[in-house]
Specification:
alpha/beta; four-stranded antiparallel sheet; Rossmann fold; 9 helices; elongated
Length: about 240
């Protein structure tokens, strides 16, 4: 595998398989983390950035296909995913790839082959600056360094503000509903209070109120959600 130390998330409930992976990859210097359920895997992927994810196709609760779909569609996670499965039909492979997996390995497998496939996935997935920098109007957000600028001036944003801004910039200029933003931040456990309003207020203070001479970019659509507008394009 690459000489670079990699962080690998293993979403697998079989303790023997997990132990084998740790025994093989840790001596090579790589950092491993394990989640035993699909829900736990989604939580870990949301909390930390990994270089690659090894995902079991059959998991208790949420199965591997659904985990992969949620990684891509809900978490907007671009981390390479290699799916492990005991099923080797063309239909199963196509289902895994369509769910968002980057590669597919059938059990039982060779650890040497798994290493080679993970190495290839990580090489192909190395982000370019263009991949990790979001741009819309006067806003620029480097998702690799968590630096935000408006019109070339740095902007200080809260941790939750980063998640909201990323969702708004990826969708811009489309409207993003309140429900979509709540899922982006709190997943399937939205707060009982109207916390979203407070975080949107803080984000607006950062990207709009801090630039009093510039038109507002963050627009509220009452009762529905929020959107970003390109103030340069509207002039």
């Amino acid at each position: 595998m690459s000489n670079k130390t990699l962080s690998i998330l293993i979403i697998e409930d079989n303790p023997d398989i997990v132990a084998n992976l740790y025994e093989y990859f840790e001596p090579l210097g790589h950092q491993l983390d394990n989640a035993r359920t699909g829900a736990a895997g989604l939580t870990r992927a949301a909390e930390q950035q990994f270089d690659v994810i090894v995902l079991d196709g059959r998991l208790p609760g949420i199965d591997g296909l659904e985990v992969c779909r949620r990684l891509r569609e809900e978490l907007h996670c671009s981390t390479p995913v290699l799916m492990l499965t005991a099923r080797d039909t063309i239909h199963d492979k196509v289902a895994g790839l369509r769910a968002g997996a980057d590669d597919y390995l059938v059990k039982p497998y060779s650890l040497i082959e798994l290493e080679a496939r993970l190495d290839a996935l990580v090489r192909r997935a190395k982000p370019t600056v263009a991949d990790q920098v979001l741009r819309f109007g006067q806003l620029q957000f480097d998702t690799g360094t968590y630096e935000v600028w408006r019109a070339g001036q740095p902007v200080d944003i809260t941790p939750i503000g980063y998640k909201l801004l990323a969702a708004l910039m990826r969708a811009a200029p489309r409207l993003v509903t309140r429900e979509e933003l709540e899922r982006e931040v709190w997943r399937d456990e939205p707060p009982l209070s109207d916390a979203l309003r407070s975080h949107i207020h803080a984000l607006r203070q950062a990207i709009d109120k801090s630039f009093p001479e510039a038109p507002a970019m963050l627009v509220t659509v009452p009762g529905i959600g929020y959107r970003l507008v390109d103030t340069d394009a509207s002039q």
